[in-house]
Structures are given as C-alpha cells and as structure tokens.
Amino acid sequence: MAAIIFIQPDGTRQSVQGVVGKSVMEAAVRHNVPGIDAECGGSCSCGTCHVHVRDEWSGRLPPKSADEEATLDCAFGVLHDSRLSCQIVFREELDGLVVHL
Ligand code: FES
After folding, report:
1. What pLDDT band is residue 42 in, cutting at 50, 70 and 90?
2. Hey, which of 49, 53, 67 would you mutate to test ligand 1's pocket, going by the most ligand atoms within 8 Å of its Cβ?
3. pLDDT of residue 25
4. Ligand 1 contacts CB of residue 49 (under 6 A)
5. Of 19, 72, 76, 90, which is the most buried if we count CB atoms within 10 A?
C-alpha cells in the first residue's frame, strides 16, 4: 500500500492509501482528513485543499502551474512550501509523502 501521511497542526498523523493517478486531495477526502474541504472538487479554484509540503518532498513534485500559483495567492496562511493538494497527482514514487495542514 502506498501511503500519504497527513499531519495536522497539533501533530496528529493520519496515514491514508494513495491511489496512483488520483490526487492527494482525493485521498484526503476519501478518508475524511480534517482540513481538506476541497470545495471546488479539484478544479484549482478554491484553495481549500491547501497543504504544506516540506523540502524533503517538494523536490519530487512537479512545479506549481500558473493556475495553482494564482489560487494560492488568494489562500490563507500561504508559505513557500504551500501547494494545492488537488494538483498533486499521486505516483508510486511518492509512497510515504508527508503533507502538513
Ligand atoms: Fe479547490 Fe484544490 S480542491 S483548489
């Protein structure tokens, strides 16, 4: 099982199964991860799937698209490591991916 690990602001960890070809947001929603509302359903327009991906993982992700950057510009609590989880497509190589909320 390829895992995605979500870490809440209080340090609570939740490991869920990632599905190759599906987004990290979809895995979060499927497993009721708190803090991932995904109001737009993954169309990169709401920012409610915002997560932080630390440096040890961010280099393995494709760069942000212009659309992702634009939506993050309007999101709350954006840092240099911010990503939209609906724009991260899970792959086997991302097994163990850690994302922070
Ligand atoms: Fe809306 Fe990701 S689900 S921007």
Report:
1. very high
2. 49
3. 98
4. yes
5. 90
